[in-house]
Design a protein that fits this description.
Rossmann fold; five-stranded parallel β-sheet; alpha/beta
Length: about 425
């Protein structure tokens, strides 16, 4: 059977597009497509489905207004999913506690799509993974459950890496160039035209699915490397009693200096994606050196912060108390996945140090379920250290008087992002 075209049928609403996985990546994609074509939003979590039917984003990224006037059906029903002809898989791709890629969500989604896949359908993966995963790990599952063969032209396969940045209202699906790929020239053309419906910035047509997969994985690996360099410089400059942010500001006056900053590297992208690449490299007989070193440096920064705080508070108090301000992985989002400050908290607790954690964005139930921590509703006012992890908008206007009011004499203010540089006078100030 020859390949089928799909774009015209989607545009005329003779065919439907489905998005599998409605988290930070999938829901914005589904809603954007639903402006132009008929969409099925599929997720295995019924509680989330009910919220989205009510116009609520469980991830708190999409406004209620963005649900209105959209041609979309939210479901966890396989029979409804069967109505689609173009499938976009946008499930998470985490790592396990040993930093080994966890493909269970991707495998589950591939099994699901395979069960409803029909001749002439299209399947495009957006989940970040290592080069080769789409064709070597996902494709066999699609073929197994559908009894269809890609090589015979029964269906089409593509990969288009997601570039969603939580909390970023400037760099959105519409404004960022979309990389697309397909298993044939025809499928690539149909996939590209489909994405051009919702991406104003246009698309880049990668020459192969593997190239598209690799392009995504190195985007975040490159950032991880640069942040690791800044973190290592921070370790060095701390021994020299030099403020790293002062150094960056001075160096940044040169036109070709890249102003990366030190910090804790968490979240579902930068702190995860490099492990997918090193895992695949190891499987091919190559042990990564630079990437692995960067991962070691960045993963250890949370413990480094803990050691600095422990050394200080045990010297000034017999019953030290520490306040953590911010448990989400970045500012102004509710996403707590792979939050590295939790490693700092664990180190502090291991020394029997009392720790309070607050965050205006994080959901208390999620924090407890994921990390076993309770969010504090009220500051005690007698802390020996305060660690500000992310510059949430609610923290921006806090001043020296505020931090003095919630700490004891001799306390340290650990400002990991340099938000309060040159603003703290009555307490010891430290930043990465």
């Amino acid at each position: 059977m020859s390949e089928a075209k799909i774009y015209d049928d989607l545009l005329s609403k003779k065919a439907k597009l489905a998005v599998i996985g409605l988290g930070y990546v999938g829901l914005p994609i589904a809603l954007e497509f639903a402006r132009k074509i008929s969409v099925i939003g599929f997720d295995i979590n019924n509680r989330r489905i009910q919220m989205m039917r009510a116009g609520l984003d469980p991830s708190k990224e999409v406004d209620a207004a963005d649900f209105k006037d959209r041609d979309i059906v939210f479901t966890d029903d396989l029979e409804v999913l069967r109505e689609a002809r173009f499938f976009i898989v946008a499930v998470p791709t985490p790592v396990d506690k040993y930093n080994v890629p966890d493909l269970k969500p991707l495998v589950g989604a591939s099994n699901t799509v395979g069960k409803v896949l029909k001749k002439g359908d299209y399947v495009v993966y957006e989940s970040t993974t290592y080069p080769g995963c789409t064709e070597e790990d996902c494709l066999p599952l699609l073929e197994k459950h559908s009894d269809l063969k890609l090589a015979q032209g029964d269906f089409s396969l593509g990969y288009s890496p997601e570039r969603i940045n939580p909390g970023d209202k400037k760099h959105t699906l519409r404004t960022v160039v979309k990389v697309v790929s397909g298993n044939t020239d025809l499928s690539l053309n149909e996939i590209a035209k489909t994405y051009e419906l919702v991406v104003d910035a246009g698309v880049h047509r990668a020459p192969s699915i593997k190239v598209a997969e690799a392009s995504k994985i190195i985007e975040n690996t490159q950032r991880d490397l640069n942040i690791a360099l800044m973190n290592e410089l921070s370790l060095i400059f701390d021994r020299m009693s030099i403020n790293t942010y002062d150094v960056i500001e001075a160096a940044g006056t040169k036109w070709n200096f890249l102003k990366f900053q030190p910090g804790l590297v968490g979240g579902h992208c930068i702190g995860i994606d490099p492990y997918y690449l090193t895992y695949k490299a190891a499987a091919l007989g190559y042990e990564s050196k630079v990437i692995a070193s960067s991962r070691y440096i960045n993963d250890d920064m949370a413990r480094y912060v803990a050691r600095k705080i422990i050394t200080h508070v045990l010297r000034i108090s017999n019953d030290p108390k520490v306040l953590i301000m911010g448990v989400t992985f970045k500012e102004n989002v509710s996403d707590i996945r792979n939050s590295r400050i939790v490693d700092t908290v664990k180190e502090l607790l291991a020394f029997n140090i009392h720790v309070d954690v607050e965050d205006p964005y994080a959901v208390e139930e999620e924090v407890h379920e994921e990390y076993g921590l309770h969010l504090s509703r009220k500051n005690s006012g007698d802390y020996d250290a305060v660690i500000i992890t992310v510059p949430h908008v609610q923290y921006k206007d806090l001043d020296d008087a505020y931090f003095t009011s919630i700490t004891r004499d001799g306390a340290i203010i650990a400002d990991l992002k340099g938000t309060y540089k040159n603003k703290i006078a009555k307490r010891k100030y430290w930043s990465l």
